[in-house]
């Protein structure tokens, strides 16, 4: 199986720091799917394949790929949407050079991060906050949100923006978000052991 952990990607890969929750959730999903030992091996191998020590944001990884520093970057797709629709012509040119690949399509599906919302414990505006959460789940808000952020709507049946449609459909890993939270500390330990800064 071709994975980013194989030696053919040596020096060709970019991904941000393990201090970021995106990577922590990704590794949590690997711990759940394959166990801690295999997740550690994966993190070690990916660390070895990096074109440089982790630095910068998801957008910076893509800018570096477009500049020829590496061939592939692990990023959230919505940042590509933001680059493609940036006011900055250079960032639009970066986006034009990149394509999206959704990994794991023959297995559990691509790892997905979420934008979450909740009510603060002890809030004195619980009812208003709940009404706002309910509003966020309406077709109107879901549609506006995906149109502005290039994230995928969580409510089914909402039309994707043309850019998301262009990237194509994909199978998403259905892992529970609560489980990602439970495994977060294990993921951080695993990154530290792997030497992924
Ligand atoms: Fe983000």
CATH architecture of the largest domain: 3-Layer(aba) Sandwich
- Give the count of structural domains: 2
Strand segment count: 2
Backbone CA Rg: 18 Å
Helix-strand topology string? EHHHEHHHHHHH
Rounded mean pLDDT score:
96
CATH C-level category of the largest domain: Alpha Beta
| Percentage of residues in strands | under 5%
Structural class: mainly alpha
Largest sheet geometry: 2 strands, parallel
Unreliable stretches: none
Describe the model.
By secondary structure, the chain is mainly alpha-helical. The protein has 10 helices and 2 strands; from the N terminus they run E-H-H-H-E-H-H-H-H-H-H-H. The protein has a two-stranded parallel ribbon. Helix 1 packs across helix 2 and helix 1 crosses helix 10. The mean pLDDT is 96.
Summary keywords:
about 5% strand; D-Maltodextrin-Binding Protein, domain 2; single chain; 2 strands; mainly alpha; binds fe (ii) ion
Summary, kept brief:
The protein has about 200 residues and is mainly alpha-helical. Helix content is about 50%, strand content about 5%.
Write the layout of secondary structure elements.
Elements: E1 13-15, H1 21-34, H2 36-49, H3 58-66, E2 72-74, H4 77-84, H5 89-96, H6 126-136, H7 139-149, H8 162-167, H9 177-182, H10 184-194
Parallel strand pairs: 1-2
The structure holds fe (ii) ion (FE2).
């Amino acid at each position: 199986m071709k994975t980013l952990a194989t030696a053919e990607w040596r020096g060709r890969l970019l991904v941000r720091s393990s201090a970021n929750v995106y990577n922590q959730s990704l590794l949590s999903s690997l711990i759940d799917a394959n166990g801690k030992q295999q997740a550690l091996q994966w993190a070690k191998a990916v660390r070895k394949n990096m074109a440089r020590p982790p630095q910068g944001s998801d957008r910076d990884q893509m800018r570096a790929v477009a500049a020829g520093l590496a061939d592939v970057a692990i990023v959230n797709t919505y940042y590509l949407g933001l680059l493609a629709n940036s006011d900055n012509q250079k960032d639009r040119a970066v986006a034009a050079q990149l394509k999206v690949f959704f990994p794991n399509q023959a297995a559990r599906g691509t790892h997905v991060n979420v934008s979450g919302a909740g009510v603060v414990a002890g809030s004195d505006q619980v009812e208003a906050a709940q009404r706002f959460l309910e509003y966020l789940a309406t077709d109107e808000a879901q549609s506006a949100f995906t149109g502005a952020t290039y994230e995928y709507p969580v409510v089914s049946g909402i039309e994707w923006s043309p850019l998301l449609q262009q990237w194509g459909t994909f199978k998403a890993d259905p892992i529970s978000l609560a489980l990602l939270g439970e495994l977060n500390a294990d993921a951080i330990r695993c990154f530290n052991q792997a030497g992924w800064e």
